[in-house]
Amino acid sequence: MSALSLVTAAVLSVGVLAGCARTVAGENTAITEDPRPLVLTTFTVLADMARNVAGEHLLVESITKVGAEIHGYEPTPGDLRTAEQAELILDNGLGLESWFEKFVERVSAPHAVVSDGVEPVYIRADAYAGKSNPHAWMSPKVAEVYVDNIASAFEDLDPLHAEDYRANAESYKAQLREVGDRLRADLDTLPPNERAVVSCEGAFSYLARDFDLQEAYLWPVNAEQEGTPKQVVSTIDFVRDNDVPAVFCESTVSDKAQRQVAEDTGARFGGTLFVDSLSEEGGPVPTYLDLLTYDARTITDALLGTRR
Known about the structure:
Elements (H helix, E strand, L loop, with lengths): L13 H4 L11 H5 L4 E4 L2 H11 L4 E4 L14 H8 L3 E4 L8 H6 L5 E3 L26 H18 L4 H26 L8 E6 L3 H6 L3 E6 L9 H14 L3 E5 L5 H10 L2 E6 L14 H17 L4
Parallel strand pairs: 1-2, 1-3, 3-4, 5-6, 7-8
Helix pairs in contact: 3-6, 3-7, 6-7, 7-11, 9-10
């Protein structure tokens, strides 16, 4: 058994894993008719990571859909019915999914926390001061920890294919390193006074730590208090004091307050960044690797005042 525990149930036998297709009336046909063991994740970014590790052996689906607000998500009865068919659920941890603890208590599937072992960045201010910032996947360096944890969970779930999961994980981590190298090369084109990411949500703390950037944000974690006058004034002060040329907002929240910051400071509104959700298949970030690349280029292009 690996160090990563499956915390709500014992590992299922290989015989069960090879069982019949699920039959859940009214649910996703792709899920109910696929005979592979079902693994659920709490959001789309984790699902993409997990699919890269699973290969052909497991069916991986996300509970929340593209564009969903994942922090305060309200699970549906259909989500619970689908979860009852799962062999494993992967969650981020670090306080990201405020809804997940009650959700997982209502289903029998084991779950694994993919951020286990991550060195957290702590939120500095606001009501969340002192708590771990949950957005650890936004650094490709930290994402390697996620991938190792996913592989360990899959090995425990399905020992028969353990070698495949480990090989897939190593291959995917190599891709993460390549993306990280390109990301650093992009960010290194920025002069010192422009090495700052100013976003709506404080989702870039791990990226800022690992790639030597300054960070400021309107609010630390998506919640009820978003874009308050105090938050806007504080962000305006940071942009003015540091002569930051561009500000950004994330795809799953309103950019109204950040556009106000841009207007009041003369900074550009640099565009929409993707954090909590991938895009649809035909969109700009259908995969996690696309997300990292897209965000890095959006940030550098806006701060430099260019478009590629």
